[in-house]
Design goal:
Blueprint: E1 16-21, E2 24-31, E3 39-42, H1 54-61, E4 66-69, H2 85-99, E5 105-110, H3 112-123, E6 128-134, H4 147-161, H5 165-169, H6 175-187, H7 201-215, E7 229-234, H8 243-251, E8 256-260, H9 267-270, H10 272-284
Helix pairs in contact: 1-10, 2-3
Length: 285
């Protein structure tokens, strides 16, 4: 980007890019002002570049260089989804350090992305300056392995109601939750050109199995995480139980915890007007 080139701060307008790391190709987008430590966004189960809420991305990108990316085997990235989230963390490390050349980043992670981010920080603590973990839980967390049943049940419910599965997976099914879910799904459509490829059924299945393995694994030693950490969730997360956000808060010394009332797994999306400026301020200071 040249000195005279305008800074893009709208995720809907962020150019689609790719970078090769060995035999692998990672798809990514970037926006916001350069010259700062980038904020790398780690996305959720079944998600591609098009599944980030632009209200969150745009708020952070006002003052920070933001990078979103597809894990291998997802969207426009090459390869296949790895068997474990540890391997996904290794792939992310290669993308960040070898592909883009960064040795220091901040992380904003949601759901499965938060699990991968934890594995990355545990393995490479010097890489990360600040950490935002939302809608997620620790390795070996109680009932994380039940995500498969919850996910398929909500997909079934969405099919019979002709709705987007995220309306069921991320939001409560009361009046407020239904309204928030539909608004969120509409925001995801704001980018109208150069959209990402949807995840394949095979890749989706492999991700689910990797999360199941994560939930059934021995806990990680999260005491090694000394970075400033912001944790957020809704109070009724059916995918990654809300109590696991409290568990993370207890295990990561000095972390901050926000639990939004009357909200589900997508509490940060339902409450974006409150959370976006909080996250942006945390990542800026």
């Amino acid at each position: 980007m040249s000195a005279t080139e305008p800074v893009i701060t709208s995720y809907a307008e962020a150019p689609a890019k790719t970078v090769s790391v060995g035999a692998d190709t990672f798809a990514y987008r970037e926006l916001g002002p350069r010259g700062t430590i980038p904020v790398v966004f780690f996305v959720h189960l079944a998600a591609t570049l098009d599944n980030w809420d632009p209200r969150l991305i745009d708020q952070v990108a006002k003052t920070r260089h933001v990078i979103t990316f597809d894990q291998l085997g997802v969207g426009a990235s090459s390869g296949r989804v790895p068997d474990t989230l540890e391997e996904a963390a290794t792939d992310a490390y290669r993308f960040i350090t070898k592909g883009l050349g960064y040795d220091k980043i901040d992380i904003f992670a949601f759901s499965m992305g938060g699990m991968i981010a934890q594995d990355l920080v545990v393995a490479h603590p010097a890489l990360v300056r600040k950490l935002v973990l939302t809608g997620t839980g620790p390795r070996g967390g109680n009932n994380i392995d039940k995500v498969v049943g919850t996910t398929y049940w909500d997909i079934f419910r969405s099919l019979i109601t002709r709705s987007d599965p995220k309306e069921f997976l991320f939001f409560n099914r009361d009046t407020i939750g239904k309204r928030a879910g539909k608004a969120f799904v509409e925001r995801l459509k704001e980018r109208t050109t150069d959209r990402d490829k949807p995840i394949s059924n095979a890749s989706f299945s492999r991700q689910l199995k990797a999360i199941q393995r994560y939930g059934r694994s021995a806990p990680s030693d999260l005491s090694v995480i000394s970075q400033p950490t912001l944790i957020a969730n809704g109070d009724n997360d059916r995918m990654v139980p809300s109590v696991l956000s409290e568990d993370l808060h207890k295990r990561i010394e000095g972390s901050e915890l926000i639990i939004y009332p009357n909200s589900g797994h997508g509490g940060i999306f339902q409450n974006w007007e409150k959370f976006a400026p909080v996250a942006a301020r945390f990542l800026t200071t």
